[in-house]
Amino acid sequence: MLLNDSITYPESDGRPMADNTEQFRWIVYLKENLEWLFAADPAVFVAGDLLWYPIEGKDKLCQAPDVLVAFGRAKGRRGSYRQWLEGNIPPQVVIEVISPGNTIPEMTRKFQFYERYGVEEYYLYDPDRGSLDGFIRQDEGLVPLETVEGWVSPRLGIHFLLTGGGELQILRPDGQPFESFQVLAERAEQERQRAEQERQRAEQERQRAEQERQRAERLAERLRQLGIDPDSPGE
Protein backbone atom coordinates (compact mmCIF):
# COMPACT_ATOMS: atom_id res chain seq x y z
CA MET A 1 0.00 0.00 0.00
CA LEU A 2 1.37 3.42 -0.96
CA LEU A 3 1.64 5.91 1.84
CA ASN A 4 0.61 9.54 1.56
CA ASP A 5 3.34 11.45 -0.29
CA SER A 6 2.25 14.66 1.41
CA ILE A 7 3.65 13.60 4.80
CA THR A 8 6.38 15.99 5.93
CA TYR A 9 9.32 14.74 7.94
CA PRO A 10 10.73 17.72 9.89
CA GLU A 11 14.49 18.26 9.76
CA SER A 12 14.53 19.63 13.30
CA ASP A 13 12.90 18.60 16.53
CA GLY A 14 13.10 22.17 17.84
CA ARG A 15 15.72 21.29 20.41
CA PRO A 16 19.27 22.62 20.47
CA MET A 17 22.12 20.40 19.34
CA ALA A 18 23.76 20.75 22.75
CA ASP A 19 22.86 22.16 26.16
CA ASN A 20 26.29 23.65 26.87
CA THR A 21 29.71 24.26 25.38
CA GLU A 22 31.21 21.08 26.85
CA GLN A 23 28.58 18.82 25.34
CA PHE A 24 28.89 20.63 22.00
CA ARG A 25 32.68 20.26 22.06
CA TRP A 26 32.46 16.51 22.56
CA ILE A 27 29.79 16.03 19.90
CA VAL A 28 31.90 17.90 17.33
CA TYR A 29 35.05 16.07 18.44
CA LEU A 30 33.45 12.65 17.99
CA LYS A 31 31.61 13.41 14.77
CA GLU A 32 34.52 15.09 13.01
CA ASN A 33 37.05 12.43 14.00
CA LEU A 34 34.75 9.64 12.83
CA GLU A 35 34.28 11.43 9.52
CA TRP A 36 38.04 11.71 9.24
CA LEU A 37 38.45 8.02 10.13
CA PHE A 38 36.14 6.93 7.30
CA ALA A 39 36.94 9.74 4.85
CA ALA A 40 38.26 7.29 2.26
CA ASP A 41 35.24 4.99 2.41
CA PRO A 42 32.36 6.33 0.30
CA ALA A 43 29.93 3.88 1.88
CA VAL A 44 30.12 5.10 5.48
CA PHE A 45 27.81 7.96 6.47
CA VAL A 46 28.53 9.93 9.65
CA ALA A 47 26.26 12.64 11.05
CA GLY A 48 25.66 14.67 14.18
CA ASP A 49 22.27 15.69 15.58
CA LEU A 50 20.43 14.34 12.51
CA LEU A 51 16.83 13.21 12.90
CA TRP A 52 16.41 9.51 12.19
CA TYR A 53 12.99 8.31 11.03
CA PRO A 54 12.90 4.49 11.07
CA ILE A 55 9.41 3.92 9.61
CA GLU A 56 7.82 5.54 6.57
CA GLY A 57 4.62 7.37 7.32
CA LYS A 58 5.38 7.90 11.02
CA ASP A 59 6.58 11.48 11.09
CA LYS A 60 6.44 11.70 14.90
CA LEU A 61 8.60 8.61 15.43
CA CYS A 62 12.17 9.86 15.42
CA GLN A 63 15.32 10.53 17.41
CA ALA A 64 18.33 12.76 16.79
CA PRO A 65 21.44 10.94 18.05
CA ASP A 66 24.34 13.17 18.97
CA VAL A 67 26.46 11.07 16.58
CA LEU A 68 25.38 8.28 14.26
CA VAL A 69 27.32 6.06 11.88
CA ALA A 70 25.63 4.12 9.07
CA PHE A 71 27.69 1.55 7.19
CA GLY A 72 26.62 0.76 3.66
CA ARG A 73 25.20 4.24 3.07
CA ALA A 74 26.73 6.84 0.80
CA LYS A 75 28.14 10.07 2.11
CA GLY A 76 26.29 13.24 1.25
CA ARG A 77 23.88 15.90 2.43
CA ARG A 78 20.67 14.85 4.18
CA GLY A 79 17.97 16.83 5.91
CA SER A 80 17.12 13.73 7.93
CA TYR A 81 17.91 10.02 7.91
CA ARG A 82 14.77 8.38 6.52
CA GLN A 83 15.54 4.72 6.81
CA TRP A 84 13.28 3.51 3.98
CA LEU A 85 15.31 5.71 1.61
CA GLU A 86 18.56 4.27 2.96
CA GLY A 87 18.09 0.66 1.89
CA ASN A 88 16.21 0.17 5.17
CA ILE A 89 19.60 0.20 6.92
CA PRO A 90 19.50 1.67 10.44
CA PRO A 91 22.53 3.48 11.86
CA GLN A 92 24.63 0.69 13.33
CA VAL A 93 26.49 2.89 15.83
CA VAL A 94 25.08 5.69 18.00
CA ILE A 95 26.95 7.84 20.51
CA GLU A 96 25.29 10.17 22.99
CA VAL A 97 27.04 12.83 25.07
CA ILE A 98 25.08 13.36 28.27
CA SER A 99 24.49 16.84 29.66
CA PRO A 100 22.88 17.93 32.96
CA GLY A 101 19.72 18.68 31.00
CA ASN A 102 19.21 15.06 29.97
CA THR A 103 16.64 13.36 32.20
CA ILE A 104 16.44 9.68 33.07
CA PRO A 105 13.07 9.25 31.28
CA GLU A 106 14.50 10.95 28.18
CA MET A 107 17.57 8.71 28.08
CA THR A 108 15.39 5.66 28.74
CA ARG A 109 13.21 6.53 25.74
CA LYS A 110 16.30 6.96 23.59
CA PHE A 111 17.67 3.60 24.70
CA GLN A 112 14.40 1.87 23.93
CA PHE A 113 14.26 3.55 20.51
CA TYR A 114 17.80 2.49 19.59
CA GLU A 115 17.23 -1.02 20.88
CA ARG A 116 13.97 -1.45 19.01
CA TYR A 117 15.13 -0.06 15.68
CA GLY A 118 18.36 -1.91 15.17
CA VAL A 119 21.35 -0.05 16.62
CA GLU A 120 24.21 -2.52 17.06
CA GLU A 121 26.48 -0.41 19.28
CA TYR A 122 25.37 2.32 21.66
CA TYR A 123 27.75 4.45 23.74
CA LEU A 124 27.01 7.12 26.34
CA TYR A 125 29.66 9.49 27.61
CA ASP A 126 29.05 11.84 30.53
CA PRO A 127 31.88 14.41 30.60
CA ASP A 128 30.69 15.87 33.93
CA ARG A 129 30.78 12.54 35.75
CA GLY A 130 33.65 11.16 33.70
CA SER A 131 31.72 7.99 32.93
CA LEU A 132 31.41 5.92 29.79
CA ASP A 133 28.83 3.20 29.20
CA GLY A 134 28.41 0.93 26.23
CA PHE A 135 25.87 -1.53 24.90
CA ILE A 136 26.26 -4.17 22.22
CA ARG A 137 23.48 -5.99 20.39
CA GLN A 138 22.99 -9.63 21.25
CA ASP A 139 20.05 -11.50 19.80
CA GLU A 140 17.25 -8.91 19.76
CA GLY A 141 18.45 -6.51 22.44
CA LEU A 142 21.23 -4.19 23.55
CA VAL A 143 23.28 -5.72 26.35
CA PRO A 144 25.47 -3.55 28.62
CA LEU A 145 29.21 -4.06 28.48
CA GLU A 146 30.85 -4.90 31.80
CA THR A 147 33.39 -2.18 31.07
CA VAL A 148 34.06 0.05 28.10
CA GLU A 149 37.59 0.80 29.31
CA GLY A 150 39.89 -0.66 26.65
CA TRP A 151 36.91 -1.79 24.57
CA VAL A 152 37.37 -2.01 20.80
CA SER A 153 34.28 -1.18 18.77
CA PRO A 154 33.48 -4.09 16.42
CA ARG A 155 32.12 -1.72 13.78
CA LEU A 156 34.39 1.30 14.16
CA GLY A 157 37.62 -0.43 15.17
CA ILE A 158 38.37 2.34 17.67
CA HIS A 159 39.65 1.89 21.23
CA PHE A 160 37.83 3.60 24.13
CA LEU A 161 39.91 4.77 27.09
CA LEU A 162 39.29 6.91 30.17
CA THR A 163 42.01 8.87 31.91
CA GLY A 164 42.24 8.94 35.69
CA GLY A 165 40.23 12.17 35.61
CA GLY A 166 37.45 10.64 33.54
CA GLU A 167 38.49 12.27 30.27
CA LEU A 168 37.49 10.22 27.26
CA GLN A 169 40.30 9.19 24.93
CA ILE A 170 39.76 7.35 21.68
CA LEU A 171 42.42 5.67 19.60
CA ARG A 172 42.06 4.99 15.90
CA PRO A 173 42.68 1.43 14.65
CA ASP A 174 46.30 2.42 13.91
CA GLY A 175 46.77 3.53 17.52
CA GLN A 176 46.77 7.25 16.75
CA PRO A 177 44.50 9.31 19.03
CA PHE A 178 41.40 11.21 18.00
CA GLU A 179 42.38 14.88 17.98
CA SER A 180 40.56 18.12 18.56
CA PHE A 181 40.19 20.81 15.92
CA GLN A 182 42.56 23.00 17.92
CA VAL A 183 45.30 20.35 17.81
CA LEU A 184 44.74 19.79 14.10
CA ALA A 185 44.79 23.54 13.45
CA GLU A 186 48.03 23.94 15.43
CA ARG A 187 49.62 21.08 13.47
CA ALA A 188 48.44 22.59 10.19
CA GLU A 189 49.97 25.93 11.19
CA GLN A 190 53.24 24.22 12.11
CA GLU A 191 53.24 22.47 8.73
CA ARG A 192 52.52 25.79 7.01
CA GLN A 193 55.41 27.45 8.81
CA ARG A 194 57.71 24.52 8.02
CA ALA A 195 56.72 24.67 4.34
CA GLU A 196 57.32 28.44 4.32
CA GLN A 197 60.76 27.95 5.85
CA GLU A 198 61.57 25.34 3.20
CA ARG A 199 60.36 27.71 0.50
CA GLN A 200 62.56 30.49 1.85
CA ARG A 201 65.58 28.15 2.02
CA ALA A 202 64.93 27.01 -1.55
CA GLU A 203 64.69 30.64 -2.67
CA GLN A 204 67.95 31.49 -0.92
CA GLU A 205 69.64 28.54 -2.64
CA ARG A 206 68.25 29.68 -5.99
CA GLN A 207 69.56 33.19 -5.39
CA ARG A 208 73.00 31.85 -4.40
CA ALA A 209 73.10 29.67 -7.51
CA GLU A 210 72.12 32.65 -9.65
CA GLN A 211 74.86 34.77 -8.07
CA GLU A 212 77.44 32.03 -8.77
CA ARG A 213 76.26 31.80 -12.37
CA GLN A 214 76.56 35.56 -12.85
CA ARG A 215 80.01 35.55 -11.20
CA ALA A 216 81.15 32.78 -13.54
CA GLU A 217 79.85 34.69 -16.55
CA ARG A 218 81.68 37.84 -15.50
CA LEU A 219 84.91 35.86 -15.07
CA ALA A 220 84.49 34.23 -18.47
CA GLU A 221 83.91 37.62 -20.08
CA ARG A 222 87.03 39.04 -18.43
CA LEU A 223 89.10 36.11 -19.74
CA ARG A 224 87.82 36.71 -23.25
CA GLN A 225 88.87 40.36 -22.97
CA LEU A 226 92.36 39.10 -22.11
CA GLY A 227 92.37 36.89 -25.18
CA ILE A 228 91.75 33.69 -23.29
CA ASP A 229 89.01 31.32 -24.36
CA PRO A 230 87.41 30.09 -21.13
CA ASP A 231 85.69 27.29 -23.02
CA SER A 232 88.83 25.76 -24.51
CA PRO A 233 90.27 22.69 -22.73
CA GLY A 234 93.44 23.33 -20.84
CA GLU A 235 96.73 21.76 -21.85
From TrEMBL:
<protein>
    <submittedName>
        <fullName>Recombination and DNA strand exchange inhibitor protein</fullName>
    </submittedName>
</protein>
<dbReference type="InterPro" id="IPR011335">
    <property type="entry name" value="Restrct_endonuc-II-like"/>
</dbReference>
<feature type="region of interest" description="Disordered">
    <location>
        <begin position="187"/>
        <end position="235"/>
    </location>
</feature>
<feature type="compositionally biased region" description="Basic and acidic residues">
    <location>
        <begin position="187"/>
        <end position="224"/>
    </location>
</feature>
<feature type="domain" description="Putative restriction endonuclease">
    <location>
        <begin position="35"/>
        <end position="150"/>
    </location>
</feature>
<dbReference type="InterPro" id="IPR008538">
    <property type="entry name" value="Uma2"/>
</dbReference>
<dbReference type="Pfam" id="PF05685">
    <property type="entry name" value="Uma2"/>
</dbReference>
<dbReference type="InterPro" id="IPR012296">
    <property type="entry name" value="Nuclease_put_TT1808"/>
</dbReference>
